[in-house]
Give the backbone structure.
Amino acid sequence: MIFNWKIKNKIALQTNKEKLPRDKFLDMQINSNNWRKVAFSSCLISCFLVFGIINISSNNKVQTYIIEKEGNNYNVLGTANNLGTDIRKNVTDEEIVYFLFNFINKTRFLTPNLELYSKNTEEILSFLTQSSSAKIDRYLIESGYKEKIKLKETVEVIQNTGIKLENNSYQIRWIERTSDKNGKIILEENYMGIFTIKFVEIKEKNHLLFNPLGMLIVDFTQIKEKL
Protein backbone atom coordinates (compact mmCIF):
# COMPACT_ATOMS: atom_id res chain seq x y z
CA MET A 1 0.00 0.00 0.00
CA ILE A 2 2.78 2.41 0.88
CA PHE A 3 4.58 1.57 -2.37
CA ASN A 4 1.43 2.19 -4.42
CA TRP A 5 0.90 5.51 -2.66
CA LYS A 6 4.47 6.63 -3.55
CA ILE A 7 3.91 5.74 -7.17
CA LYS A 8 0.62 7.63 -7.32
CA ASN A 9 2.23 10.64 -5.62
CA LYS A 10 5.14 10.60 -8.11
CA ILE A 11 2.74 10.42 -11.06
CA ALA A 12 0.75 13.32 -9.66
CA LEU A 13 3.90 15.43 -9.23
CA GLN A 14 4.97 14.71 -12.77
CA THR A 15 1.47 15.58 -14.04
CA ASN A 16 1.48 18.87 -12.12
CA LYS A 17 4.98 19.64 -13.37
CA GLU A 18 3.87 19.15 -16.97
CA LYS A 19 0.99 21.57 -16.37
CA LEU A 20 3.31 24.31 -15.04
CA PRO A 21 4.24 26.97 -17.62
CA ARG A 22 7.83 26.68 -19.02
CA ASP A 23 10.33 29.41 -18.12
CA LYS A 24 11.48 30.74 -21.53
CA PHE A 25 14.43 32.67 -20.11
CA LEU A 26 15.64 29.58 -18.28
CA ASP A 27 15.39 27.58 -21.50
CA MET A 28 17.37 30.28 -23.37
CA GLN A 29 20.07 30.25 -20.73
CA ILE A 30 20.30 26.47 -20.88
CA ASN A 31 20.53 26.55 -24.68
CA SER A 32 23.18 29.27 -24.52
CA ASN A 33 25.27 27.23 -22.11
CA ASN A 34 24.95 24.21 -24.37
CA TRP A 35 26.12 26.22 -27.39
CA ARG A 36 29.10 27.52 -25.41
CA LYS A 37 30.09 23.97 -24.51
CA VAL A 38 29.77 22.86 -28.15
CA ALA A 39 31.74 25.85 -29.41
CA PHE A 40 34.50 25.34 -26.86
CA SER A 41 34.71 21.64 -27.71
CA SER A 42 34.89 22.40 -31.45
CA CYS A 43 37.58 25.01 -30.88
CA LEU A 44 39.59 22.59 -28.77
CA ILE A 45 39.31 19.85 -31.40
CA SER A 46 40.35 22.31 -34.16
CA CYS A 47 43.42 23.34 -32.15
CA PHE A 48 44.47 19.71 -31.77
CA LEU A 49 43.97 19.10 -35.50
CA VAL A 50 45.97 22.17 -36.53
CA PHE A 51 48.75 21.24 -34.13
CA GLY A 52 48.79 17.72 -35.57
CA ILE A 53 48.97 18.97 -39.16
CA ILE A 54 51.79 21.37 -38.34
CA ASN A 55 53.68 18.62 -36.54
CA ILE A 56 53.28 16.21 -39.46
CA SER A 57 54.28 18.84 -42.00
CA SER A 58 57.39 19.83 -40.06
CA ASN A 59 58.52 16.22 -39.73
CA ASN A 60 57.90 15.28 -43.38
CA LYS A 61 60.14 16.46 -46.23
CA VAL A 62 57.94 17.27 -49.21
CA GLN A 63 59.47 16.78 -52.64
CA THR A 64 58.14 18.38 -55.82
CA TYR A 65 58.33 16.12 -58.86
CA ILE A 66 58.35 17.22 -62.50
CA ILE A 67 56.18 15.03 -64.75
CA GLU A 68 56.35 15.12 -68.55
CA LYS A 69 53.21 14.23 -70.53
CA GLU A 70 53.46 12.78 -74.05
CA GLY A 71 50.04 11.86 -75.35
CA ASN A 72 48.59 9.47 -72.78
CA ASN A 73 52.00 8.61 -71.35
CA TYR A 74 53.52 10.27 -68.27
CA ASN A 75 57.22 10.28 -67.44
CA VAL A 76 58.63 11.30 -64.07
CA LEU A 77 61.68 13.43 -64.86
CA GLY A 78 62.78 13.86 -61.25
CA THR A 79 62.51 16.30 -58.39
CA ALA A 80 62.50 20.05 -59.02
CA ASN A 81 65.68 20.54 -56.97
CA ASN A 82 67.61 17.81 -58.79
CA LEU A 83 66.45 19.01 -62.20
CA GLY A 84 67.53 22.56 -61.38
CA THR A 85 70.99 21.26 -60.48
CA ASP A 86 71.17 19.18 -63.68
CA ILE A 87 70.13 22.16 -65.83
CA ARG A 88 72.86 24.33 -64.31
CA LYS A 89 75.43 21.59 -64.95
CA ASN A 90 74.40 21.16 -68.59
CA VAL A 91 73.94 24.82 -69.55
CA THR A 92 75.91 25.73 -72.70
CA ASP A 93 78.08 28.78 -73.35
CA GLU A 94 75.60 29.91 -76.01
CA GLU A 95 72.80 29.93 -73.43
CA ILE A 96 74.94 31.91 -70.99
CA VAL A 97 75.78 34.45 -73.70
CA TYR A 98 72.07 34.75 -74.49
CA PHE A 99 71.20 35.46 -70.86
CA LEU A 100 74.07 37.96 -70.57
CA PHE A 101 72.93 39.86 -73.62
CA ASN A 102 69.36 39.81 -72.35
CA PHE A 103 70.71 41.32 -69.13
CA ILE A 104 72.54 44.05 -71.10
CA ASN A 105 69.45 44.77 -73.16
CA LYS A 106 67.26 45.11 -70.08
CA THR A 107 69.88 47.35 -68.45
CA ARG A 108 70.78 49.68 -71.31
CA PHE A 109 67.59 49.74 -73.38
CA LEU A 110 65.80 53.06 -72.87
CA THR A 111 62.25 53.80 -73.92
CA PRO A 112 59.93 56.79 -73.36
CA ASN A 113 57.71 54.37 -71.44
CA LEU A 114 59.26 54.76 -68.00
CA GLU A 115 57.01 52.03 -66.55
CA LEU A 116 58.62 49.52 -68.91
CA TYR A 117 62.07 50.85 -68.03
CA SER A 118 61.31 50.45 -64.32
CA LYS A 119 60.03 46.92 -64.94
CA ASN A 120 63.24 46.02 -66.77
CA THR A 121 65.29 47.51 -63.95
CA GLU A 122 63.40 45.40 -61.41
CA GLU A 123 63.88 42.27 -63.53
CA ILE A 124 67.67 42.57 -63.81
CA LEU A 125 68.03 42.58 -60.02
CA SER A 126 67.62 38.79 -60.15
CA PHE A 127 70.98 38.59 -61.99
CA LEU A 128 72.98 40.85 -59.67
CA THR A 129 74.87 40.75 -56.41
CA GLN A 130 74.94 43.84 -54.23
CA SER A 131 78.31 44.97 -55.57
CA SER A 132 77.44 44.43 -59.25
CA SER A 133 74.15 46.26 -58.73
CA ALA A 134 76.10 49.31 -57.51
CA LYS A 135 78.24 49.15 -60.65
CA ILE A 136 75.16 49.17 -62.86
CA ASP A 137 74.00 52.43 -61.31
CA ARG A 138 77.42 54.01 -61.75
CA TYR A 139 77.71 53.02 -65.41
CA LEU A 140 74.23 54.35 -66.20
CA ILE A 141 75.06 57.68 -64.58
CA GLU A 142 78.35 57.87 -66.51
CA SER A 143 76.44 57.20 -69.76
CA GLY A 144 74.15 60.15 -69.07
CA TYR A 145 70.93 58.19 -68.70
CA LYS A 146 69.39 60.78 -66.38
CA GLU A 147 69.83 63.46 -69.05
CA LYS A 148 68.57 61.09 -71.76
CA ILE A 149 65.37 60.52 -69.77
CA LYS A 150 64.84 64.26 -69.30
CA LEU A 151 65.31 64.87 -73.04
CA LYS A 152 63.00 61.91 -73.87
CA GLU A 153 65.74 60.21 -75.85
CA THR A 154 65.69 56.47 -76.56
CA VAL A 155 68.49 53.91 -76.65
CA GLU A 156 68.41 50.80 -78.83
CA VAL A 157 70.75 47.92 -77.93
CA ILE A 158 72.09 45.71 -80.74
CA GLN A 159 74.02 42.51 -80.02
CA ASN A 160 77.40 42.15 -81.66
CA THR A 161 79.44 39.19 -80.37
CA GLY A 162 79.68 37.02 -77.27
CA ILE A 163 82.44 34.54 -76.36
CA LYS A 164 83.75 32.68 -73.32
CA LEU A 165 87.19 33.79 -72.11
CA GLU A 166 88.26 31.56 -69.20
CA ASN A 167 86.78 30.04 -66.07
CA ASN A 168 83.42 31.78 -65.63
CA SER A 169 84.22 34.97 -67.56
CA TYR A 170 82.53 36.03 -70.80
CA GLN A 171 83.12 38.89 -73.23
CA ILE A 172 80.08 40.57 -74.75
CA ARG A 173 80.14 43.28 -77.43
CA TRP A 174 77.14 45.42 -78.31
CA ILE A 175 76.09 48.63 -80.06
CA GLU A 176 73.99 51.39 -78.52
CA ARG A 177 72.02 53.62 -80.88
CA THR A 178 70.59 56.79 -79.34
CA SER A 179 67.69 58.67 -80.95
CA ASP A 180 66.07 61.98 -80.02
CA LYS A 181 62.39 62.37 -79.14
CA ASN A 182 61.57 62.69 -82.87
CA GLY A 183 63.21 59.34 -83.69
CA LYS A 184 66.32 60.80 -85.36
CA ILE A 185 69.55 58.88 -84.65
CA ILE A 186 71.96 61.25 -82.91
CA LEU A 187 74.61 58.86 -81.57
CA GLU A 188 75.94 55.36 -82.14
CA GLU A 189 78.52 53.82 -79.78
CA ASN A 190 80.24 50.44 -79.44
CA TYR A 191 80.68 48.80 -76.05
CA MET A 192 82.58 45.81 -74.70
CA GLY A 193 81.94 44.16 -71.34
CA ILE A 194 83.64 41.40 -69.34
CA PHE A 195 81.23 39.49 -67.08
CA THR A 196 82.13 37.02 -64.33
CA ILE A 197 79.29 34.72 -63.31
CA LYS A 198 78.43 31.95 -60.89
CA PHE A 199 75.44 29.65 -60.48
CA VAL A 200 73.37 29.56 -57.30
CA GLU A 201 70.06 28.09 -56.20
CA ILE A 202 67.35 30.72 -56.57
CA LYS A 203 64.71 30.49 -53.82
CA GLU A 204 62.71 33.68 -54.36
CA LYS A 205 59.80 33.01 -56.74
CA ASN A 206 59.95 36.42 -58.40
CA HIS A 207 63.67 36.01 -59.15
CA LEU A 208 63.20 32.43 -60.36
CA LEU A 209 60.73 33.65 -62.99
CA PHE A 210 63.35 35.91 -64.62
CA ASN A 211 66.47 33.88 -63.84
CA PRO A 212 65.61 30.15 -64.09
CA LEU A 213 69.29 29.19 -64.54
CA GLY A 214 70.24 30.76 -61.22
CA MET A 215 73.02 32.74 -62.91
CA LEU A 216 74.47 35.63 -60.91
CA ILE A 217 76.78 38.31 -62.27
CA VAL A 218 79.30 38.68 -59.45
CA ASP A 219 81.47 41.25 -61.25
CA PHE A 220 81.75 43.02 -64.58
CA THR A 221 83.46 45.89 -66.36
CA GLN A 222 82.44 47.73 -69.51
CA ILE A 223 84.26 50.18 -71.77
CA LYS A 224 83.35 52.26 -74.80
CA GLU A 225 85.22 51.07 -77.86
CA LYS A 226 86.59 53.28 -80.62
CA LEU A 227 86.41 51.47 -83.93
The first helix runs from residue 2 to 19. Strands lie at 65-70, 73-79, 154-164, 169-179, 185-199, 215-225.
